[in-house]
Amino acid sequence: MSKTAPHLPWLLSLILLWGCSDLVDPPDASSSIEGVVTHALDVATDDGPVRGSTLGGLNVFKGIPYAAPPTGSRRWAPPARPTRWTQPLAATAFGPPCPQLREEVLHLNEDCLRLNVWAPAAAAKPRAVLVWIHGGGYVEGASSEAWYDAAQLAEREDLVVVSFNYRLGLLGFLALPQLTAPDGGTGNWGLRDQIAALDWVRRNIAAFGGDPKRVMIAGESAGAVSVTTLLAATPAQGLFQRAAIQSGTYRPVLEKEQPVGAFPSAYFVGLVSAIVLECTEGDIAACLRAKPPVQVLGTQLQLTPVTEMGLSLWPTLPVVDGVVLKGRPLARVLAGSGDVPVLVGANDNEASFVLASMGVVGNPGDFGRYVDALGASARKAQLTALYQPSVVGEVAAADALGTDLSFACPAQRLATASATVGTAPAYLYRFARALPNGPLAPLGVAHGTDIVYLFGRFDAVATTPTPQDLTLSWQLQSAWGAMARTGSPIPAWLPYSPGGTFITWNTPATTEATWRGGRCASLDAWGLLPP
Protein backbone atom coordinates (compact mmCIF):
# COMPACT_ATOMS: atom_id res chain seq x y z
CA MET A 1 0.00 0.00 0.00
CA SER A 2 2.97 2.27 -0.45
CA LYS A 3 3.16 5.21 -2.80
CA THR A 4 6.92 4.78 -3.12
CA ALA A 5 6.92 1.34 -4.66
CA PRO A 6 4.40 -0.60 -6.72
CA HIS A 7 2.27 -2.98 -4.70
CA LEU A 8 3.98 -6.33 -4.53
CA PRO A 9 1.04 -8.74 -4.46
CA TRP A 10 3.02 -11.89 -3.82
CA LEU A 11 3.18 -14.90 -1.49
CA LEU A 12 1.12 -17.33 0.85
CA SER A 13 1.22 -20.37 3.37
CA LEU A 14 -0.11 -22.52 6.41
CA ILE A 15 0.62 -24.93 9.31
CA LEU A 16 1.89 -28.35 10.43
CA LEU A 17 -0.76 -29.97 12.60
CA TRP A 18 1.53 -31.23 15.28
CA GLY A 19 -0.12 -33.67 17.62
CA CYS A 20 -3.24 -34.07 15.40
CA SER A 21 -3.95 -37.72 14.69
CA ASP A 22 -5.99 -36.89 11.57
CA LEU A 23 -3.07 -35.24 9.77
CA VAL A 24 -2.53 -36.70 6.29
CA ASP A 25 0.32 -36.33 3.87
CA PRO A 26 0.02 -33.37 1.48
CA PRO A 27 -0.64 -34.04 -2.19
CA ASP A 28 2.19 -33.86 -4.70
CA ALA A 29 2.33 -30.09 -5.03
CA SER A 30 4.89 -30.27 -7.82
CA SER A 31 2.45 -31.81 -10.28
CA SER A 32 0.29 -29.69 -12.56
CA ILE A 33 -3.41 -29.58 -11.79
CA GLU A 34 -4.43 -27.38 -14.68
CA GLY A 35 -4.68 -30.12 -17.28
CA VAL A 36 -5.93 -29.44 -20.78
CA VAL A 37 -9.09 -27.76 -22.01
CA THR A 38 -11.41 -30.64 -22.80
CA HIS A 39 -14.64 -28.90 -23.72
CA ALA A 40 -16.65 -25.72 -23.45
CA LEU A 41 -19.19 -25.43 -20.67
CA ASP A 42 -22.29 -23.21 -20.55
CA VAL A 43 -23.79 -21.92 -17.31
CA ALA A 44 -26.88 -19.72 -17.04
CA THR A 45 -26.57 -16.59 -14.89
CA ASP A 46 -29.40 -14.17 -14.23
CA ASP A 47 -27.82 -11.74 -16.71
CA GLY A 48 -27.37 -14.32 -19.47
CA PRO A 49 -25.48 -17.54 -20.27
CA VAL A 50 -21.68 -17.71 -20.05
CA ARG A 51 -19.38 -20.18 -21.75
CA GLY A 52 -16.27 -21.25 -19.86
CA SER A 53 -13.92 -24.20 -20.11
CA THR A 54 -13.36 -27.45 -18.30
CA LEU A 55 -9.69 -27.50 -17.37
CA GLY A 56 -8.64 -30.80 -15.84
CA GLY A 57 -10.92 -31.20 -12.84
CA LEU A 58 -12.06 -27.57 -12.85
CA ASN A 59 -14.67 -25.50 -14.58
CA VAL A 60 -13.10 -22.10 -15.21
CA PHE A 61 -14.90 -18.89 -16.19
CA LYS A 62 -13.07 -15.61 -16.70
CA GLY A 63 -14.19 -12.08 -17.44
CA ILE A 64 -17.89 -12.40 -16.56
CA PRO A 65 -19.50 -8.92 -16.37
CA TYR A 66 -21.08 -8.40 -12.96
CA ALA A 67 -21.97 -4.76 -13.64
CA ALA A 68 -22.40 -2.46 -16.59
CA PRO A 69 -19.37 -0.45 -17.78
CA PRO A 70 -19.04 2.55 -15.40
CA THR A 71 -18.75 5.05 -18.24
CA GLY A 72 -20.61 8.24 -19.16
CA SER A 73 -23.30 8.95 -16.60
CA ARG A 74 -22.39 5.71 -14.79
CA ARG A 75 -18.93 7.02 -13.89
CA TRP A 76 -18.98 7.95 -10.19
CA ALA A 77 -22.36 6.27 -9.75
CA PRO A 78 -23.44 3.04 -8.08
CA PRO A 79 -22.78 -0.02 -10.26
CA ALA A 80 -25.74 -1.04 -12.41
CA ARG A 81 -26.66 -4.50 -13.65
CA PRO A 82 -25.24 -5.22 -17.11
CA THR A 83 -27.50 -5.27 -20.14
CA ARG A 84 -28.92 -8.75 -20.37
CA TRP A 85 -27.64 -11.00 -23.16
CA THR A 86 -29.19 -14.16 -24.64
CA GLN A 87 -26.36 -15.93 -26.49
CA PRO A 88 -23.55 -17.60 -24.51
CA LEU A 89 -20.91 -15.03 -23.63
CA ALA A 90 -17.32 -16.21 -24.01
CA ALA A 91 -15.77 -16.40 -20.53
CA THR A 92 -12.34 -17.78 -21.32
CA ALA A 93 -10.15 -14.67 -20.90
CA PHE A 94 -9.73 -12.23 -18.02
CA GLY A 95 -11.41 -8.87 -18.36
CA PRO A 96 -9.25 -5.73 -18.51
CA PRO A 97 -7.84 -4.29 -15.28
CA CYS A 98 -9.66 -1.22 -14.07
CA PRO A 99 -7.95 2.05 -15.12
CA GLN A 100 -4.74 2.65 -13.19
CA LEU A 101 -1.27 4.10 -13.45
CA ARG A 102 1.42 1.43 -13.27
CA GLU A 103 5.07 1.51 -14.14
CA GLU A 104 4.87 -1.27 -16.70
CA VAL A 105 1.68 -0.30 -18.58
CA LEU A 106 -1.12 2.25 -18.53
CA HIS A 107 -4.56 0.67 -18.18
CA LEU A 108 -7.45 2.83 -19.37
CA ASN A 109 -10.39 0.53 -20.17
CA GLU A 110 -13.31 1.44 -17.90
CA ASP A 111 -15.31 -1.64 -18.99
CA CYS A 112 -13.54 -3.56 -16.25
CA LEU A 113 -16.18 -4.75 -13.79
CA ARG A 114 -15.62 -8.44 -14.45
CA LEU A 115 -15.23 -11.50 -12.25
CA ASN A 116 -13.76 -14.98 -12.50
CA VAL A 117 -14.88 -18.36 -11.17
CA TRP A 118 -12.91 -21.55 -10.53
CA ALA A 119 -15.23 -24.43 -9.61
CA PRO A 120 -14.54 -28.17 -9.20
CA ALA A 121 -16.23 -30.03 -12.03
CA ALA A 122 -17.72 -32.89 -10.00
CA ALA A 123 -20.61 -31.39 -8.04
CA ALA A 124 -21.98 -33.85 -5.51
CA LYS A 125 -23.25 -31.05 -3.26
CA PRO A 126 -22.90 -27.26 -3.03
CA ARG A 127 -19.40 -26.17 -2.14
CA ALA A 128 -18.17 -23.37 0.08
CA VAL A 129 -17.12 -20.19 -1.73
CA LEU A 130 -13.99 -18.08 -1.24
CA VAL A 131 -14.18 -14.59 -2.77
CA TRP A 132 -10.74 -13.02 -3.20
CA ILE A 133 -10.27 -9.21 -3.24
CA HIS A 134 -7.01 -8.03 -4.78
CA GLY A 135 -4.67 -5.49 -3.20
CA GLY A 136 -2.81 -2.51 -4.60
CA GLY A 137 -3.39 0.44 -2.29
CA TYR A 138 -6.79 1.15 -3.92
CA VAL A 139 -4.90 2.60 -6.91
CA GLU A 140 -3.68 -0.47 -8.82
CA GLY A 141 -3.96 -4.24 -9.12
CA ALA A 142 -6.22 -6.72 -10.91
CA SER A 143 -7.72 -10.15 -10.38
CA SER A 144 -5.85 -11.39 -13.47
CA GLU A 145 -2.40 -11.19 -11.85
CA ALA A 146 -0.61 -14.54 -11.94
CA TRP A 147 -0.20 -14.95 -8.15
CA TYR A 148 -4.01 -14.88 -7.80
CA ASP A 149 -4.60 -17.88 -10.09
CA ALA A 150 -6.95 -19.97 -7.95
CA ALA A 151 -6.85 -23.29 -9.82
CA GLN A 152 -4.73 -25.10 -7.23
CA LEU A 153 -6.61 -23.69 -4.23
CA ALA A 154 -10.03 -24.51 -5.71
CA GLU A 155 -9.15 -28.07 -6.68
CA ARG A 156 -7.21 -29.04 -3.56
CA GLU A 157 -9.75 -27.62 -1.14
CA ASP A 158 -12.86 -28.45 -3.17
CA LEU A 159 -13.90 -24.78 -3.12
CA VAL A 160 -15.52 -22.44 -5.56
CA VAL A 161 -13.17 -19.45 -5.78
CA VAL A 162 -14.25 -16.07 -7.17
CA SER A 163 -12.11 -13.01 -7.87
CA PHE A 164 -13.04 -9.66 -9.41
CA ASN A 165 -11.90 -6.18 -10.42
CA TYR A 166 -13.24 -2.98 -8.87
CA ARG A 167 -12.82 0.72 -9.64
CA LEU A 168 -9.59 2.26 -8.38
CA GLY A 169 -8.06 5.61 -7.54
CA LEU A 170 -10.09 8.73 -8.26
CA LEU A 171 -12.34 6.76 -10.58
CA GLY A 172 -13.27 4.54 -7.64
CA PHE A 173 -13.31 6.89 -4.68
CA LEU A 174 -13.91 10.52 -5.74
CA ALA A 175 -16.35 12.20 -3.34
CA LEU A 176 -18.11 15.51 -3.94
CA PRO A 177 -21.56 16.89 -3.14
CA GLN A 178 -22.14 17.05 -6.92
CA LEU A 179 -21.43 13.30 -7.15
CA THR A 180 -24.10 12.15 -4.72
CA ALA A 181 -25.91 8.90 -5.50
CA PRO A 182 -29.71 8.66 -5.35
CA ASP A 183 -29.40 7.04 -1.92
CA GLY A 184 -27.39 10.01 -0.62
CA GLY A 185 -23.98 8.34 -0.54
CA THR A 186 -20.82 9.47 -2.28
CA GLY A 187 -17.24 8.39 -2.87
CA ASN A 188 -17.53 4.64 -2.33
CA TRP A 189 -17.83 3.64 -5.97
CA GLY A 190 -15.12 0.97 -5.77
CA LEU A 191 -16.51 -0.33 -2.48
CA ARG A 192 -19.96 -0.48 -4.04
CA ASP A 193 -18.42 -2.53 -6.86
CA GLN A 194 -17.16 -5.03 -4.29
CA ILE A 195 -20.64 -5.24 -2.78
CA ALA A 196 -22.16 -5.68 -6.25
CA ALA A 197 -19.75 -8.56 -6.94
CA LEU A 198 -20.80 -10.20 -3.66
CA ASP A 199 -24.43 -9.72 -4.59
CA TRP A 200 -23.70 -11.41 -7.94
CA VAL A 201 -22.26 -14.33 -5.97
CA ARG A 202 -25.40 -14.49 -3.82
CA ARG A 203 -27.63 -14.61 -6.90
CA ASN A 204 -25.58 -16.83 -9.20
CA ILE A 205 -22.98 -18.96 -7.46
CA ALA A 206 -25.33 -21.93 -7.01
CA ALA A 207 -25.32 -22.37 -10.80
CA PHE A 208 -21.54 -22.91 -10.58
CA GLY A 209 -21.83 -25.43 -7.74
CA GLY A 210 -21.31 -22.95 -4.91
CA ASP A 211 -23.24 -22.47 -1.68
CA PRO A 212 -24.39 -18.84 -1.28
CA LYS A 213 -24.81 -19.42 2.46
CA ARG A 214 -21.12 -20.31 2.92
CA VAL A 215 -19.22 -17.39 1.41
CA MET A 216 -15.85 -16.31 2.79
CA ILE A 217 -14.35 -12.99 1.73
CA ALA A 218 -10.57 -12.76 1.80
CA GLY A 219 -7.92 -10.32 0.69
CA GLU A 220 -4.42 -8.98 1.27
CA SER A 221 -3.21 -5.38 1.74
CA ALA A 222 -5.88 -3.07 0.27
CA GLY A 223 -7.89 -6.24 -0.34
CA ALA A 224 -7.71 -6.95 3.40
CA VAL A 225 -8.59 -3.34 4.21
CA SER A 226 -11.55 -3.90 1.90
CA VAL A 227 -12.57 -6.97 3.92
CA THR A 228 -12.41 -4.94 7.12
CA THR A 229 -14.44 -2.18 5.49
CA LEU A 230 -17.02 -4.69 4.23
CA LEU A 231 -17.41 -5.96 7.78
CA ALA A 232 -18.54 -2.42 8.59
CA ALA A 233 -20.51 -1.61 5.41
CA THR A 234 -24.27 -1.68 5.87
CA PRO A 235 -25.22 -3.01 2.38
CA ALA A 236 -22.67 -5.84 2.66
CA GLN A 237 -24.21 -7.44 5.74
CA GLY A 238 -25.52 -10.93 4.99
CA LEU A 239 -23.55 -11.30 1.74
CA PHE A 240 -20.75 -13.30 3.41
CA GLN A 241 -20.44 -15.61 6.42
CA ARG A 242 -16.67 -15.62 7.15
CA ALA A 243 -13.72 -13.31 6.48
CA ALA A 244 -9.92 -13.41 6.20
CA ILE A 245 -7.92 -10.21 6.71
CA GLN A 246 -4.34 -10.74 5.52
CA SER A 247 -2.00 -7.80 6.22
CA GLY A 248 -4.82 -5.30 6.40
CA THR A 249 -5.97 -2.63 8.79
CA TYR A 250 -9.02 -0.55 9.67
CA ARG A 251 -7.54 2.94 9.40
CA PRO A 252 -7.51 3.86 5.67
CA VAL A 253 -10.92 5.50 5.31
CA LEU A 254 -11.82 9.17 4.92
CA GLU A 255 -14.48 11.13 6.72
CA LYS A 256 -16.67 13.00 4.28
CA GLU A 257 -16.15 16.53 5.61
CA GLN A 258 -13.61 16.41 8.45
CA PRO A 259 -9.91 15.48 8.40
CA VAL A 260 -8.91 12.72 10.81
CA GLY A 261 -5.28 12.52 11.88
CA ALA A 262 -3.12 12.69 8.78
CA PHE A 263 -6.08 11.86 6.53
CA PRO A 264 -7.76 14.79 4.75
CA SER A 265 -11.51 14.91 4.30
CA ALA A 266 -12.95 13.20 1.23
CA TYR A 267 -14.52 16.47 0.09
CA PHE A 268 -11.14 18.22 0.31
CA VAL A 269 -9.59 15.56 -1.94
CA GLY A 270 -12.56 15.94 -4.27
CA LEU A 271 -12.25 19.72 -4.37
CA VAL A 272 -8.53 19.59 -5.15
CA SER A 273 -9.22 17.07 -7.90
CA ALA A 274 -11.99 19.19 -9.40
CA ILE A 275 -9.73 22.24 -9.39
CA VAL A 276 -6.91 20.37 -11.13
CA LEU A 277 -9.40 19.02 -13.69
CA GLU A 278 -10.79 22.55 -14.18
CA CYS A 279 -14.32 21.55 -13.21
CA THR A 280 -15.36 24.23 -10.72
CA GLU A 281 -18.28 25.97 -12.42
CA GLY A 282 -21.55 24.99 -14.06
CA ASP A 283 -22.41 21.31 -14.21
CA ILE A 284 -19.42 20.02 -12.29
CA ALA A 285 -20.48 16.37 -12.49
CA ALA A 286 -20.86 16.52 -16.28
CA CYS A 287 -17.51 18.27 -16.61
CA LEU A 288 -15.78 15.59 -14.56
CA ARG A 289 -17.45 12.75 -16.44
CA ALA A 290 -16.30 14.22 -19.74
CA LYS A 291 -12.64 13.99 -18.77
CA PRO A 292 -10.70 11.05 -20.25
CA PRO A 293 -9.57 8.47 -17.72
CA VAL A 294 -5.89 9.22 -18.30
CA GLN A 295 -6.47 12.83 -17.24
CA VAL A 296 -8.39 11.75 -14.13
CA LEU A 297 -5.66 9.30 -13.19
CA GLY A 298 -2.98 11.92 -13.77
CA THR A 299 -4.70 14.14 -11.23
CA GLN A 300 -3.90 11.55 -8.53
CA LEU A 301 -0.22 12.45 -8.89
CA GLN A 302 -0.98 15.99 -7.72
CA LEU A 303 -2.61 14.82 -4.49
CA THR A 304 -0.57 14.76 -1.29
CA PRO A 305 0.08 11.20 -0.06
CA VAL A 306 -0.89 10.30 3.49
CA THR A 307 1.61 8.81 5.94
CA GLU A 308 0.16 7.42 9.15
CA MET A 309 0.70 4.24 11.16
CA GLY A 310 3.70 3.40 9.00
CA LEU A 311 1.76 3.49 5.73
CA SER A 312 2.21 5.87 2.85
CA LEU A 313 -0.70 5.84 0.43
CA TRP A 314 -2.79 7.99 -1.86
CA PRO A 315 -5.93 9.57 -0.32
CA THR A 316 -8.28 7.79 -2.71
CA LEU A 317 -9.99 5.63 -0.10
CA PRO A 318 -13.41 4.48 1.12
CA VAL A 319 -15.53 7.22 2.68
CA VAL A 320 -17.67 7.38 5.79
CA ASP A 321 -20.61 8.70 3.77
CA GLY A 322 -23.47 7.81 6.14
CA VAL A 323 -24.95 5.37 3.65
CA VAL A 324 -22.54 2.62 2.61
CA LEU A 325 -20.29 3.35 5.60
CA LYS A 326 -22.10 4.77 8.61
CA GLY A 327 -19.00 4.89 10.78
CA ARG A 328 -15.32 4.03 10.89
CA PRO A 329 -14.65 0.31 10.43
CA LEU A 330 -13.18 -0.44 13.86
CA ALA A 331 -15.97 1.44 15.61
CA ARG A 332 -18.55 -0.42 13.55
CA VAL A 333 -16.99 -3.79 14.39
CA LEU A 334 -16.96 -2.84 18.07
CA ALA A 335 -20.65 -2.00 17.73
CA GLY A 336 -21.35 -5.51 16.43
CA SER A 337 -21.21 -5.08 12.67
CA GLY A 338 -19.78 -7.96 10.65
CA ASP A 339 -20.25 -10.56 13.38
CA VAL A 340 -18.79 -13.47 11.41
CA PRO A 341 -15.81 -15.77 12.04
CA VAL A 342 -12.63 -13.91 11.13
CA LEU A 343 -9.03 -14.85 10.38
CA VAL A 344 -6.66 -11.90 10.81
CA GLY A 345 -2.90 -11.65 10.81
CA ALA A 346 0.30 -10.10 9.52
CA ASN A 347 3.72 -11.04 8.17
CA ASP A 348 6.96 -10.60 10.09
CA ASN A 349 8.55 -8.02 7.77
CA GLU A 350 5.64 -6.06 6.31
CA ALA A 351 7.65 -2.84 6.02
CA SER A 352 10.76 -4.29 4.38
CA PHE A 353 9.84 -3.46 0.81
CA VAL A 354 9.55 0.30 1.40
CA LEU A 355 12.46 0.96 3.74
CA ALA A 356 15.12 1.66 1.11
CA SER A 357 12.82 4.09 -0.69
CA MET A 358 12.38 5.91 2.63
CA GLY A 359 16.13 6.20 3.17
CA VAL A 360 16.55 3.31 5.60
CA VAL A 361 19.60 1.49 4.27
CA GLY A 362 21.62 0.82 7.42
CA ASN A 363 23.41 4.10 8.02
CA PRO A 364 23.71 5.48 11.57
CA GLY A 365 20.64 7.50 12.44
CA ASP A 366 18.38 5.87 9.82
CA PHE A 367 15.94 4.68 12.49
CA GLY A 368 15.55 8.18 13.92
CA ARG A 369 14.99 9.65 10.47
CA TYR A 370 12.39 6.96 9.80
CA VAL A 371 10.59 7.91 13.02
CA ASP A 372 10.55 11.52 11.81
CA ALA A 373 9.13 10.45 8.45
CA LEU A 374 6.31 8.64 10.24
CA GLY A 375 5.41 11.79 12.16
CA ALA A 376 6.38 10.28 15.53
CA SER A 377 9.31 12.55 16.42
CA ALA A 378 7.81 13.37 19.81
CA ARG A 379 8.23 9.70 20.80
CA LYS A 380 11.66 9.17 19.27
CA ALA A 381 13.42 8.52 22.59
CA GLN A 382 10.85 5.95 23.71
CA LEU A 383 10.79 4.26 20.30
CA THR A 384 14.56 4.09 20.19
CA ALA A 385 14.60 2.43 23.60
CA LEU A 386 11.86 0.00 22.58
CA TYR A 387 13.28 -1.05 19.19
CA GLN A 388 17.01 -0.74 20.02
CA PRO A 389 18.54 0.07 16.61
CA SER A 390 22.03 0.07 18.18
CA VAL A 391 21.52 -3.61 19.07
CA VAL A 392 19.48 -5.10 16.21
CA GLY A 393 20.56 -2.68 13.49
CA GLU A 394 18.95 0.38 11.94
CA VAL A 395 17.10 -1.54 9.20
CA ALA A 396 15.75 -4.28 11.46
CA ALA A 397 14.53 -1.75 14.02
CA ALA A 398 12.77 0.34 11.38
CA ASP A 399 11.23 -2.77 9.82
CA ALA A 400 9.89 -3.90 13.19
CA LEU A 401 8.42 -0.47 13.95
CA GLY A 402 6.83 -0.06 10.52
CA THR A 403 5.40 -3.57 10.64
CA ASP A 404 3.97 -3.03 14.13
CA LEU A 405 2.37 0.29 13.26
CA SER A 406 0.96 -0.60 9.88
CA PHE A 407 -0.30 -4.16 10.16
CA ALA A 408 0.72 -6.27 13.16
CA CYS A 409 -0.73 -4.18 16.00
CA PRO A 410 -3.90 -3.35 14.04
CA ALA A 411 -4.30 -7.09 13.36
CA GLN A 412 -4.21 -7.83 17.08
CA ARG A 413 -6.68 -5.02 17.75
CA LEU A 414 -9.06 -6.33 15.09
CA ALA A 415 -8.82 -9.84 16.49
CA THR A 416 -9.50 -8.52 19.97
CA ALA A 417 -12.49 -6.50 18.76
CA SER A 418 -13.96 -9.46 16.87
CA ALA A 419 -13.33 -11.81 19.77
CA THR A 420 -14.91 -9.63 22.43
CA VAL A 421 -17.98 -8.36 20.55
CA GLY A 422 -20.76 -10.51 19.20
CA THR A 423 -20.77 -14.28 19.03
CA ALA A 424 -18.36 -15.27 16.25
CA PRO A 425 -14.75 -16.31 16.96
CA ALA A 426 -11.58 -14.66 15.67
CA TYR A 427 -8.35 -16.43 14.78
CA LEU A 428 -5.06 -14.52 14.94
CA TYR A 429 -1.97 -15.57 13.01
CA ARG A 430 1.62 -14.54 12.38
CA PHE A 431 3.21 -15.50 9.05
CA ALA A 432 6.92 -16.11 9.58
CA ARG A 433 8.22 -18.02 6.55
CA ALA A 434 10.33 -16.10 4.02
CA LEU A 435 10.61 -17.28 0.44
CA PRO A 436 13.59 -19.65 0.20
CA ASN A 437 15.08 -18.11 -2.94
CA GLY A 438 14.36 -15.79 -5.84
CA PRO A 439 14.36 -12.00 -6.13
CA LEU A 440 12.07 -11.41 -3.13
CA ALA A 441 13.92 -13.61 -0.65
CA PRO A 442 16.21 -10.80 0.61
CA LEU A 443 13.13 -8.89 1.83
CA GLY A 444 12.38 -11.52 4.47
CA VAL A 445 8.74 -12.26 5.27
CA ALA A 446 7.68 -9.26 3.24
CA HIS A 447 4.30 -7.70 2.62
CA GLY A 448 2.42 -10.13 0.39
CA THR A 449 4.55 -13.23 1.04
CA ASP A 450 1.52 -15.14 2.32
CA ILE A 451 -0.23 -14.82 -1.06
CA VAL A 452 2.27 -17.07 -2.83
CA TYR A 453 1.71 -19.81 -0.28
CA LEU A 454 -2.08 -19.50 -0.26
CA PHE A 455 -2.42 -19.83 -4.03
CA GLY A 456 0.66 -22.02 -4.48
CA ARG A 457 1.98 -19.86 -7.30
CA PHE A 458 5.70 -19.79 -6.50
CA ASP A 459 6.42 -19.54 -10.21
CA ALA A 460 4.74 -16.12 -10.31
CA VAL A 461 7.57 -14.69 -8.20
CA ALA A 462 10.43 -16.72 -9.73
CA THR A 463 10.83 -18.90 -6.63
CA THR A 464 11.67 -22.60 -6.50
CA PRO A 465 9.91 -23.97 -3.40
CA THR A 466 11.51 -26.53 -1.14
CA PRO A 467 9.51 -29.55 0.06
CA GLN A 468 8.94 -27.64 3.32
CA ASP A 469 7.48 -24.69 1.40
CA LEU A 470 5.16 -26.95 -0.56
CA THR A 471 3.96 -28.54 2.66
CA LEU A 472 3.39 -25.14 4.25
CA SER A 473 1.45 -24.01 1.18
CA TRP A 474 -0.80 -27.05 1.39
CA GLN A 475 -1.34 -26.51 5.11
CA LEU A 476 -2.28 -22.86 4.60
CA GLN A 477 -4.73 -23.84 1.88
CA SER A 478 -6.17 -26.49 4.22
CA ALA A 479 -6.81 -23.98 7.01
CA TRP A 480 -8.36 -21.34 4.73
CA GLY A 481 -10.45 -24.05 3.05
CA ALA A 482 -11.71 -25.37 6.39
CA MET A 483 -12.57 -21.83 7.44
CA ALA A 484 -14.58 -21.31 4.26
CA ARG A 485 -16.41 -24.60 4.67
CA THR A 486 -17.17 -24.55 8.40
CA GLY A 487 -16.32 -21.15 9.89
CA SER A 488 -13.49 -22.79 11.84
CA PRO A 489 -9.94 -23.57 10.63
CA ILE A 490 -7.85 -26.57 11.61
CA PRO A 491 -8.26 -28.03 15.16
CA ALA A 492 -4.82 -26.87 16.32
CA TRP A 493 -5.73 -23.22 15.72
CA LEU A 494 -7.73 -22.06 18.72
CA PRO A 495 -9.97 -18.97 18.77
CA TYR A 496 -8.20 -15.87 19.98
CA SER A 497 -8.98 -14.10 23.23
CA PRO A 498 -7.21 -10.99 24.58
CA GLY A 499 -3.80 -12.13 25.78
CA GLY A 500 -4.41 -15.60 24.37
CA THR A 501 -2.56 -17.74 21.87
CA PHE A 502 -2.15 -17.42 18.12
CA ILE A 503 -0.65 -19.51 15.32
CA THR A 504 2.76 -18.77 13.82
CA TRP A 505 2.91 -20.19 10.29
CA ASN A 506 6.42 -21.46 9.64
CA THR A 507 8.16 -24.77 9.06
CA PRO A 508 7.05 -26.13 11.46
CA ALA A 509 4.21 -24.03 12.79
CA THR A 510 3.94 -23.18 16.47
CA THR A 511 1.51 -21.77 18.99
CA GLU A 512 2.61 -18.59 20.75
CA ALA A 513 1.19 -16.23 23.35
CA THR A 514 3.22 -12.99 23.08
CA TRP A 515 2.30 -10.88 20.05
CA ARG A 516 5.19 -8.83 18.59
CA GLY A 517 7.14 -8.95 21.83
CA GLY A 518 4.37 -7.07 23.67
CA ARG A 519 5.27 -3.82 21.90
CA CYS A 520 1.73 -2.99 20.77
CA ALA A 521 0.71 -2.03 24.31
CA SER A 522 3.48 0.57 24.45
CA LEU A 523 2.61 1.98 21.03
CA ASP A 524 -1.02 2.23 22.06
CA ALA A 525 -0.16 3.95 25.34
CA TRP A 526 1.91 6.52 23.42
CA GLY A 527 -1.00 7.36 21.11
CA LEU A 528 0.60 5.83 18.01
CA LEU A 529 -2.25 3.42 17.23
CA PRO A 530 -5.28 5.61 16.52
CA PRO A 531 -8.66 3.88 16.10
TrEMBL record:
Keywords: Hydrolase
UniProt domain Carboxylesterase type B: residue ranges: 43-496
PROSITE patterns noted in UniProt: CARBOXYLESTERASE_B_1
InterPro entries associated with the record: AB_hydrolase_fold, CarbesteraseB, Carboxylesterase_B_AS, Cholinesterase, Type-B_Carboxylest/Lipase
Signal peptide positions on this chain: none
EC code(s) of this entry: 3.1.1.-
One Pfam short name: COesterase
Membrane-crossing residue ranges in chain numbering: none
Family: Belongs to the type-B carboxylesterase/lipase family.
Protein name (Swiss-Prot/TrEMBL): Carboxylic ester hydrolase
Organism listed in the record: Corallococcus praedator
Lineage: Bacteria, Pseudomonadati, Myxococcota, Myxococcia, Myxococcales
